[in-house]
Amino acid sequence: MKPYLREKSAFSFEEIPEKTCFEAGYLVTKNSGWRRARPVIDKDKCVMCLQCYLYCPDGVISESDNNICIDYDFCKGCGICGKICKAGAIKMEAEV
Amino acid sequence: MSVTAKNLSREEFFYGHKACPGCGGSLAVRNALKVLGKNAVAVLPAGCMSAVGFNFPQLCFGNNAIISTFAGTASMLTGIEAALRIRGCDFTAVGFAGDGGTADIGIQALSGAIDRGDNIIYICYDNEAYMNTGIQKSGLTPFGAKTTTTPAGENIRGNIRPKKNMFEIAAAHGIPYAATATVGYMTDFLNKVEKASRIKGTKYIHVIAPCPSGWGIPESDTVEVAREIVDCGLWYLAEFYEGEFKVTHTPKEFTSVENYLKKQGRFKHLTAEDIKIIESSRDKKWEKIRKEWV
């Protein structure tokens, strides 16, 4: 199961777990604000080697229908994908 | 069948975490969990991965995961393994501890678990210092590295002690399976995790995971540096299985140690003499590896 983003709501005092257990994969905040540059994929150059997917520390790169998709909500813009891509299909573009 | 990018599970079990951009440790945890699947029960002691994965209510593990005491990764794994086995669950008990939590603080619990032969996987993600608390020297910090507790000055140039040989310490217990890996050669690491999941008894995997903030490298260079450490011979990819050591990747020719060191902020202060010491200890180690290991 991929952890997914929930609607942010304030916990009432009763809802805060008394024990050390809580639901797995419970996300309430994004990481997109950390990014200074965003990876952009050139679909014509991409050869679907999946190295960017394999080496992404945040797991935000995924493959669907023979396309590479990036989850920009959680990409921190580290640029590992841009360096690992032998086909030169990933460019880092500055966030403005 | 060997694990590749193509057949690796598309599910993500470590997502939305707050690790620094380009974190090598999170890369190791993310992919190891993809190999082990949703029934993996992860144990994380105090360290980077528990600090970035469990910020209530932001809980980034998609599988069962729990924080242990700093010293008790392996002992908590022992308990989890025993309890779930008795309840008849289908599971893999896996621990992810940093270098400090393995080689310094958690070493006796790990040693005990190996001695008992508990059916667990222990993965040490080695970023070569206590990075979570602000870069203090650990037992796995290499010679010459600058940390906040081994500063580089006129009299002492960084860490004066060599890196503890954790892989061979684990192997010396007569462990069923131990391996070294790096996040730079990901499929090698993932196949070792997969192999470990099929072996009964205690398994220990030591994976090098560069830390951009602690090592003083750009965040996009994590993977490159993790490859270079193997290519220049300062780290080796090996296995210990059925009582035999085996090298799984032998570089034909070593790349320059100086290039590897000088691109990292923590080694910037090293003199030519220091680099010679590091090179000669590398050559000595490899001489032994080539002679004694298969």
Please give the structural blueprint.
The complex is a heterodimer of chains A (96) and B (294).
Chain A: E1 4-5, E2 26-27, E3 37-41, H1 51-55, E4 61-64, E5 67-70, H2 80-84, E6 90-94
Parallel strand pairs in A: 1-2
Antiparallel strand pairs in A: 3-6, 4-5
Chain B: H1 24-36, E1 40-44, H2 48-53, E2 54-55, E3 58-59, E4 64-67, H3 73-86, E5 92-98, H4 99-104, H5 107-116, E6 121-126, H6 166-172, E7 177-182, H7 186-198, E8 203-208, H8 212-215, H9 222-231, E9 237-241, E10 244-249, H10 257-262, H11 272-292
Parallel strand pairs in B: 1-4, 1-5, 5-6, 6-8, 7-8
Antiparallel strand pairs in B: 2-3, 7-9, 9-10
Helix pairs in contact in B: 1-7, 3-5
In short:
The complex is a heterodimer of chains A (96) and B (294). Chain A is an alpha+beta fold and 96 residues long.
Whole-angstrom Rg of chain B: 18 Å
CATH C-level label of chain B: Alpha Beta
Rounded to the nearest angstrom, the radius of gyration of chain A is 17 Å
- The fraction of residues assigned to DSSP E strands of chain A is 15-25%
- How many strand elements of chain B? 10
At the third CATH level, what is the topology name of chain A? Alpha-Beta Plaits
CATH topology grouping of chain B: Rossmann fold
User: Could you give a short account of the major beta sheet of chain B?
Assistant: 8 strands, mixed
Give the CATH class of chain A: Alpha Beta
N- and C-termini, Cα separation of chain A: 33 Å
What's the SSE pattern of chain B?
Answer: HEHEEEHEHHEHEHEHHEEHH
Protein structure class of chain A:
alpha+beta
Total helices of chain B: the number is 11
Helical content of chain B stands at 25-40%
Number of strands of chain A: 6
* Name given to the CATH architecture of chain A: 2-Layer Sandwich
CATH architecture of chain B: 3-Layer(aba) Sandwich
Question: Which sequence of SSEs, written as H and E, runs from N to C of chain A?
Answer: EEEHEEHE
The main pleated sheet of chain A reads as: 2 strands, parallel
| Helix percentage range of chain A | 10-25%
